[in-house]
Amino acid sequence: MKQNLVFDAPRRGMPPRHFADLDDDGRAAAVAELGMPAFRAKQLANQYFGRLIADPELMTDLPAAVRAQTAEALFPDLLSIVRAVECDAGETRKTLWRAHDGANFESVLMRYTDRNTVCISSQAGCGMACPFCATGQGGLMRNLSTAEILEQVRAAAAELRDRDGEGIARDGRLSNIVFMGMGEPLANYNRVVAAVRRIVAPSPNGFGISARSVTVSTVGLAPAIRKLADERLNVTLALSLHAPDDELRDTLVPVNNRWKVSEALDAARYYADVTGRRVSVEYALIRDVNDQPWRADLLGKRLHGALGPLVHVNLIPLNPTPGSEWDASPKPVEREFVRRVRERGVSCTVRDTRGREIAAACGQLAAEG
């Protein structure tokens, strides 16, 4: 397997520095560079993370004389909306974003009765080359900056706040973040970890979302999984497994040629042991490819042996991409797969699928437009 499947060099430049890229010390230094008193750093953080404002012209506690200077230095326009589509009576909204260099990526906001979740991207495209994934078919353009990641979160939180409260959890507040959009989060490790730190940090230094409500997915970059465990952020780890055997996974998830199923599961066990958090195993069920009864048995056996009670299988009915040869498994096959995994003593449920009519599988909207 080519090395660039895992850590492909970005082909375009990163965006200009943004306030959200900076940690506490960086914010203090940036404010000092502008000749403003130190307390402005906390003031700007409260505006961005607390009030969800990214335009200094709207920051009423900032002197009018310094707003333009602050905007130019710390709040460049990073993203614009190319297209936004809704379904599920407006409860699912997918946004296609365009960055300063023309790179496109997506986020999906999903409202439920008990939670509000945004699925965000960590890269423009993806270099993992999984053949059943729309993003993987398009290849990797570049990593996203920390601020580009956080802007997806801020935009979702602001949208929820500004909508009417009908049917929205927690009075219209964003409750869950999942790094399951475009890209492999752990291939953009430093920026993703920085974004997670801002997401979970209490106001005014972050969005104040519980680490337990943040999920970081990976196709199985074993060393990075162990490194993430040692960060002690205690977010939920989601391992996209998709096959219990190396022979099939080498094809479905090409990074398996570098880190085999056993290595990915060993790293997941290390994560569970260090954090005390149960690992979620993602398994896209594909008709006549990975849905055989014997694979369900093997999946249950391997997970029970590697992780015991510290694992939950999240079966995902495949959301087919246009022109793809891949299709979702029939419901009877799905039910039998669940039964067999559970029979091995492993928790297993089927994920609620949203947004099929708006091409909500990651990468589909970008591929269309």
Automatic annotation (TrEMBL):
<feature type="binding site">
    <location>
        <position position="217"/>
    </location>
    <ligand>
        <name>S-adenosyl-L-methionine</name>
    </ligand>
</feature>
<feature type="domain" description="Radical SAM core">
    <location>
        <begin position="112"/>
        <end position="356"/>
    </location>
</feature>
<dbReference type="GO" id="GO:0002935">
    <property type="term" value="F:tRNA (adenine(37)-C2)-methyltransferase activity"/>
</dbReference>
<comment type="function">
    <text>Specifically methylates position 2 of adenine 2503 in 23S rRNA and position 2 of adenine 37 in tRNAs.</text>
</comment>
<feature type="binding site">
    <location>
        <position position="319"/>
    </location>
    <ligand>
        <name>S-adenosyl-L-methionine</name>
    </ligand>
</feature>
<feature type="binding site">
    <location>
        <position position="130"/>
    </location>
    <ligand>
        <name>[4Fe-4S] cluster</name>
    </ligand>
</feature>
<keyword id="KW-0408">Iron</keyword>
<feature type="binding site">
    <location>
        <begin position="240"/>
        <end position="242"/>
    </location>
    <ligand>
        <name>S-adenosyl-L-methionine</name>
    </ligand>
</feature>
<dbReference type="GO" id="GO:0019843">
    <property type="term" value="F:rRNA binding"/>
</dbReference>
<dbReference type="GO" id="GO:0000049">
    <property type="term" value="F:tRNA binding"/>
</dbReference>
<feature type="binding site">
    <location>
        <begin position="183"/>
        <end position="184"/>
    </location>
    <ligand>
        <name>S-adenosyl-L-methionine</name>
    </ligand>
</feature>
<feature type="binding site">
    <location>
        <position position="133"/>
    </location>
    <ligand>
        <name>[4Fe-4S] cluster</name>
    </ligand>
</feature>
<dbReference type="Pfam" id="PF04055">
    <property type="entry name" value="Radical_SAM"/>
</dbReference>
<dbReference type="InterPro" id="IPR058240">
    <property type="entry name" value="rSAM_sf"/>
</dbReference>
<dbReference type="GO" id="GO:0070475">
    <property type="term" value="P:rRNA base methylation"/>
</dbReference>
<dbReference type="GO" id="GO:0051539">
    <property type="term" value="F:4 iron, 4 sulfur cluster binding"/>
</dbReference>
<dbReference type="InterPro" id="IPR013785">
    <property type="entry name" value="Aldolase_TIM"/>
</dbReference>
<dbReference type="GO" id="GO:0070040">
    <property type="term" value="F:rRNA (adenine(2503)-C2-)-methyltransferase activity"/>
</dbReference>
<feature type="active site" description="S-methylcysteine intermediate">
    <location>
        <position position="362"/>
    </location>
</feature>
<dbReference type="GO" id="GO:0030488">
    <property type="term" value="P:tRNA methylation"/>
</dbReference>
<dbReference type="InterPro" id="IPR027492">
    <property type="entry name" value="RNA_MTrfase_RlmN"/>
</dbReference>
<keyword id="KW-0963">Cytoplasm</keyword>
<keyword id="KW-0698">rRNA processing</keyword>
<protein>
    <recommendedName>
        <fullName>Probable dual-specificity RNA methyltransferase RlmN</fullName>
        <ecNumber>2.1.1.192</ecNumber>
    </recommendedName>
</protein>
<dbReference type="GO" id="GO:0005737">
    <property type="term" value="C:cytoplasm"/>
</dbReference>
<keyword id="KW-1015">Disulfide bond</keyword>
<dbReference type="InterPro" id="IPR004383">
    <property type="entry name" value="rRNA_lsu_MTrfase_RlmN/Cfr"/>
</dbReference>
<keyword id="KW-0808">Transferase</keyword>
<dbReference type="GO" id="GO:0046872">
    <property type="term" value="F:metal ion binding"/>
</dbReference>
<keyword id="KW-0489">Methyltransferase</keyword>
<dbReference type="InterPro" id="IPR007197">
    <property type="entry name" value="rSAM"/>
</dbReference>
<keyword id="KW-0411">Iron-sulfur</keyword>
<feature type="binding site">
    <location>
        <position position="126"/>
    </location>
    <ligand>
        <name>[4Fe-4S] cluster</name>
    </ligand>
</feature>
<comment type="similarity">
    <text>Belongs to the radical SAM superfamily. RlmN family.</text>
</comment>
<keyword id="KW-0949">S-adenosyl-L-methionine</keyword>
<keyword id="KW-0004">4Fe-4S</keyword>
<keyword id="KW-0819">tRNA processing</keyword>
<feature type="active site" description="Proton acceptor">
    <location>
        <position position="106"/>
    </location>
</feature>
<keyword id="KW-0479">Metal-binding</keyword>
<dbReference type="InterPro" id="IPR040072">
    <property type="entry name" value="Methyltransferase_A"/>
</dbReference>
